[in-house]
Amino acid sequence: MKIKRKLWCKACWVSNKLYHLLKMINQEYLCVSLDSTQIDDA
Fold it and tell me: In degrees rounded to 5, what are phi and psi of residue 25?
């Protein structure tokens, strides 16, 4: 049971890291696409 809990904690930690990474990438992508639309309008 202890091992299972350890694996669960690790999986939770990894998914949390991935979630934050995806959020960061998403924000950067949004900023880039916003910049390109502004350039197109100019």
Answer: -60, -40
Q: How many domains does the chain have?
A: 1
Q: Tokens 């939770």 identify what position?
A: 12
Domain that holds residue 16: 1-42
Measure the CA–CA gap between 12 and 38, rounded to whole angstroms: 39
pTM of this prediction exceeds 0.70: no
As a 3-state breakdown, the chain gives helix, strand, coil percent values, each rounded to 5, of: 95, 0, 5
How does pLDDT run across 1-42, given as a tens digit for each residue? 688 889 989 999 999 999 999 999 988 888 887 777 665 555
